[in-house]
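Could someone model zinc ion with this protein?
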Amino acid sequence: MTTLIKADRLIDGTGKAPLKDAVLLVEGGIVKGVFEGQAPKELVPADAEVLDFPGCTILPGLIDTHVHLNLPGDGSTLEDAMRETEGVFVATSSFAASKALDAGITSVRDVGGSGRTVIDVRRTLELGYGRGARICACGQPITVTGGHTWYWGGEADGEERLRLKVREMVRLGADFIKVMASGGGTVNTISWLPAFSQRELSAIADEAHRMDRKITAHCLCAASIEYAIEAGVDQIEHAGFIVNAKGEQIFDAAVAEKLGKAGIPVTGTLAVGGYMVEAMQAKTDRTPAEQSILDRWLRMLDDNLDQFAQLRQAGVEFVAGTDAGWRFTPVDALPTEIALMQRGGMTAMEAIVAATGFAARTIGIEDRAGTLAPGLASDVLVVAGNPLDDLKALRDVRMVMQGTDMRITPSARA
Ligand SMILES: [Zn+2]
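Reply:
Sure, complex below.
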């Protein structure tokens, strides 16, 4: 079956100027061609289906590089969410993946869940049961004993056991390795100090690379970023500069410069603060405790937007990722993240590329998704209006198409 998708313009995900009066030719779940004006007649069979979207924009399906499909995004803390069993997580994660797809997010990278639940959901989708965003999965984030998200099963300490843990994740079917290099929003963990020693973190990164897996590190303090750079990780999540238990941040220009020089991309997860602030502001009768949460997150969001701009000045490249599932962040948060990246200083086009072509390159799926070019999966999003004029257009979804090949794991691709 050949399908022609027509719209006023097409953004291909590379950052190139949009094509006008665009035609996208799709066949068997694969992009066959991208044209301005008209597709060459010899490529279009007589019985081709034509989908015409006047006033609309064609984009590559979006990619959220930081989600937690296990988590509900309804305000629950991690501790609340962990009352459920793994069977429930499998079911709710499938539901979350389908909601993401409905919003035009055709691929997600899940940066941690319980046991093998997300890997099982990925497999179920690969087998063709149900529909949902293509999932790039790490299994359990590797964390110190009692460290951030330890409930999910990723605890390990000491170089030997950490190397074993990486191998166990690969055995489970991990597409990449996630490590918690500092504490985070888990009770009794320390966000303002590195969790692993330098030798431990370096051992994890070395083992991940020996197993041909990329590794990304959750870092909420400057020292954890420095350790991650030294360990040679491929990506950093959050890149926070927290200095104390109150969550106050002090930007460290020297660490920012090191990070820029290292060329390691960062996932901003600005949406977490955005949704937290929105949820707290929506409550008119705030208790003193809720007011202090609001004050804290207003400050965090401001700091995060400032740091986003300062890190970019230091040469750091940002990739779009939301932390969907965490606290009030819904699974379709990505358009909000893209808008916040624009608020932090990116152009609309730069922010869209951070959620399409650059996202695919960062997580290593650029040979199948992220841009609209011949040979890639037909992951397509059509929205009303022009997102380059107003990013809110990304919420006005007219069509979502997903290529048929759901595989991500290198071994499954062979
Ligand atoms: Zn996260």
